[in-house]
Amino acid sequence: MGQLPAPRVTPSRAFSSSGVDYAGPIQVRTSKGRGQKSSKGYICLFVCMSTKAIHLECVTDLTSQAFIAAFRRFVARRGHCSHLWSDNGTNFVGAAKELRRMFEVGKNNMAKEIAELLANDGTTWHFIPPKAPNFGGLWKAGVKSAKQHLYRISGATRLTYEEMTTLLAQIEACLNSRPLCQMDDTLETLDPLTPGHFLIGEPLIGLPENDYVNKNVNLLTRWQFIQNRIQNFWRRWQAHYLQTLQQRYKWQRVVRSPSIGDIVIIKEEDLAPCKWLLGKIITLHPGSEKLVRVVSVRCKRNVVMKRPLSKLILLPIKPEPY
């Protein structure tokens, strides 16, 4: 296996170096009400190469102009993007040519100082080799996280552009709230490091809402229906993400047993979106064969829970010796 590219391991501002890809299609309605037609839309995903933060935009087609509009919204909210990686899609290639043309026109029509500033602020576009999707594994993983569960919760539902933008923004917050590693082991401030810390300096949170998962969707208002979709997405994606952190292989070697003081994520099914339950192991409960399968965990406010290891994920995830 080769070394990671330099942007993946070089500290930088969030989204200074980014990857981009499309997911879809999705059906977007023109307006509310019965009988309104729907058309194809797409999800434009930007992922930060260094922090793995994700930014989602809803676009109406696959043209270069639609992508440039999404790119302008992305830069306006996330700051200048110095380097952008993508595959060789025709919309990306066309957008790269259009951006280069705009920079060249700007340098010809403006004063020298402004021309130099434009040249310095230009985005360098990088294309991965053709027929090599594994070179874009970072944004392909982000597309899978957003697209797979969004399709499962949406089904045949048709949302307006405004509703789809709201849904994608909340899905983006869910994806950017995932724990990366622990920052400290103090119970009073037991918070994991997340991509949201690199964006706003603190964890991303969702506004408190009632539980709409188990309610009849035919009796919900449009806003309550959107929250029902968000809560369904959160439960599906959280369970899938935690499983990826807890890979189990054949017992060919002895793995490290948990120890007192380890920070863990506790699997809970009824947590609100963007909420993660963390705790510190305080007691081990070994079985008759001296293997630990159950531990006691202390959470915030001195709440003690007894849980099996199958419901816990250690943080940070350390590579096991071979």
From TrEMBL:
<feature type="domain" description="Integrase catalytic">
    <location>
        <begin position="7"/>
        <end position="203"/>
    </location>
</feature>
<dbReference type="InterPro" id="IPR036397">
    <property type="entry name" value="RNaseH_sf"/>
</dbReference>
<dbReference type="GO" id="GO:0003676">
    <property type="term" value="F:nucleic acid binding"/>
</dbReference>
<dbReference type="InterPro" id="IPR040676">
    <property type="entry name" value="DUF5641"/>
</dbReference>
<dbReference type="InterPro" id="IPR001584">
    <property type="entry name" value="Integrase_cat-core"/>
</dbReference>
<dbReference type="Pfam" id="PF18701">
    <property type="entry name" value="DUF5641"/>
</dbReference>
<protein>
    <recommendedName>
        <fullName>Integrase catalytic domain-containing protein</fullName>
    </recommendedName>
</protein>
<dbReference type="GO" id="GO:0015074">
    <property type="term" value="P:DNA integration"/>
</dbReference>
<dbReference type="InterPro" id="IPR012337">
    <property type="entry name" value="RNaseH-like_sf"/>
</dbReference>
